[in-house]
Specification:
The chain has 507 residues and is an alpha/beta fold. It is 48% helix and 13% strand. It has 20 helices and ten strands.
């Protein structure tokens, strides 16, 4: 794999200058074309043997391209805020908009490379890291994020000579790191780890390209050629995930069939029950156990099912500084310029905090499916993408609870009419509500499919009969409290090592 790069090929200065002049013009032309079309973003992952000139390559691209639309995304050790969220959170947070370019340095490959370079690597961990990375990159590709990965490589002798040359000049000595100096002792292990990594994670939608790096001229030209080729590619075709995410399903079956809409809570008991469960919720979210956790609540249901009222009864028990409510509507222009899950990833809470979603990421398999805003291929893939998203939250200590508030068709009609007749509630009823009601059967089918495919043991659905609002509100509080109070007794249901805990010296 690295034989050609380790012959340390070179390019004369004259040849390089002529080629560079052509490449710089072509690169900017293609960059501006992409910016105008705004159909696809480009992520360039920069990795390789330490001392191979990765920093110089990034500086080169920032110089040759219009830097206003190039985002250098450099990652080192996790900050405290990053450590409180799933490992992929910081990468999702920083995804560039369609038409722009991201240069990723210190990427999601850190943990895989760190494990592979050990004297006795854990094969199971390596395969898990590789699977998670492949799935992440496939998900990006499916959302029109183009991923190209550059591995900078040179021979052991060339790496030594380059390091010594930089050390000899006070103007460049600062560029030599401790990791650069360690390469000579670990070169064979580093080489083997790199080969393992590249073999496991090269995909048609996210290829690795090896760039010979002993000669500065050749490295510069090859880098520009690879990026230019990527920019010239048309928007990718449909991407299929390498394998389904096998997660254990919840013990209880989530379905709308058999929901008892007549379930009620007597008005005389409501105030007492509400106060009781709110008090317990207030206590449990202030416990030491919850300080090491976070909470994500997803509320879904038919229009007028009482999601807003249930959420208000939950937030009444919480410290206003420790939660955020996210009402989800049609995506904004900023959100449409990035992958679908981006706006949900960036809203995930830190430990000791809660994020409450009034409608959620399930819009992809409900509204977007029923309204035919996406293809059947995409909404079918979304079940697996959503399960992966939720599993990463749970693996990081987030408690994910999902509620479907189920209201009968007759009760929904009564509430719609009540809203139209009430000056105080008229703002709650829109033409979309009436239009959606006409598609009741289509939404019912989509909901059943959603519940079947995403009712996992890690993030189960709770179907709450909501014709009686008092009953629904208390049941929501009860499920949250009992779940949080059971954290100390909870067995580890699923565990995946974080994809990145700190920067890897091989990067």
């Amino acid at each position: 794999m690295f034989e050609d790069a380790e012959t340390d090929p070179c390019l004369s200065k004259e040849e390089a200058q002529q080629r560079i002049a052509e490449l710089r013009t072509a690169l900017q032309h293609q960059q501006y074309r992409r910016l105008h079309e705004q159909k696809q973003s480009l992520l360039i992952v920069v990795a390789g043997i330490d001392g191979a000139g990765k920093g110089s390559a990034i500086n080169q691209l920032n110089t040759w391209l219009d830097p206003r639309y190039v985002h250098t995304l450099a990652y080192g050790k996790l900050t405290s805020g990053e450590a409180m969220r799933p490992a992929m959170w910081r990468y999702w947070r920083d995804l560039p908009t369609k038409g722009s370019i991201g240069l990723v340095f210190g990427s999601w490959y850190a943990s895989l490379l760190s494990e592979a370079v050990r004297k006795r690597p854990d094969h199971d961990k390596i395969m898990l890291y590789a699977t998670l990375i492949n799935r992440f990159e496939a998900m990006l590709a499916a959302e029109n994020v183009q991923v190209v990965k550059l591995w900078y490589h040179l021979s052991k002798q060339a790496q030594y000579e380059r390091t010594q040359r930089l050390l000899a000049d006070p103007a460049t000595a600062w560029r030599v790191t401790k990791a650069d100096l360690k390469v000579q002792k670990k070169f064979e292990r580093l080489r083997h780890a790199a080969q393992t990594t590249l073999e496991l994670t090269t995909r048609s939608y996210a290829p690795w390209v090896i760039v010979p790096s002993a000669d500065d001229n050749l490295r510069a030209v090859r880098t520009a050629e690879v990026v230019l080729h990527a920019l010239q590619q048309p928007v990718g075709q449909a991407i299929h995930l390498d394998e389904a995410l096998a997660l254990p399903m919840a013990a209880h079956k989530a379905t709308l069939r058999g929901v008892n809409y007549r379930t009620q809570l007597k008005k005389d008991n409501y105030a007492e029950q509400l106060s009781h469960w709110q008090g317990r919720l207030a206590q449990v979210v202030r416990s030491d156990t919850f300080k090491e956790r976070s909470l994500v609540l997803a509320f879904e249901g038919q229009d007028a099912a009482g999601k807003g009222g249930a959420i208000r009864r939950v937030t009444e028990a919480l410290d206003v500084r420790s939660y955020a409510v996210h009402p989800i509507a049609a995506p904004s222009a900023e959100e449409l310029a990035r992958p679908y899950l981006w706006r949900f990833w960036r809203s995930l809470p830190r430990h000791g905090h809660a994020a409450i979603f009034d409608r959620s990421w399930y819009g992809r398999v409900l509204v977007e499916r029923v309204e035919k805003l996406i293809s059947p291929t995409r909404w079918r893939q979304a079940y697996d993408e959503i399960n992966s998203f939720e599993s990463q939250m749970v693996a990081n200590g987030t408690v994910v609870i999902k509620f479907w508030l189920a209201v009968s068709k007759g009760e929904q009609l009564r509430r719609f009419q009540e809203r139209e007749d009430s000056p105080f509630k008229q703002y709650k009823i829109t033409e979309d509500d009436w239009r959606n009601r006409k598609k009741w059967s289509a939404y019912h089918t989509a909901t059943e499919d959603m519940l079947t495919h995403t009712n996992t043991l890690l993030a189960p659905w709770y179907i709450i009969p909501a014709d009686d609002k008092r009953y629904a509100r208390v049941e929501v509080l009860k499920h949250i409290v009992l779940t949080l109070e059971g954290l100390d007794k909870q067995e580890v249901l699923y565990s995946e090592p974080p994809v990145l805990q700190q920067s890897s010296e091989i990067l």
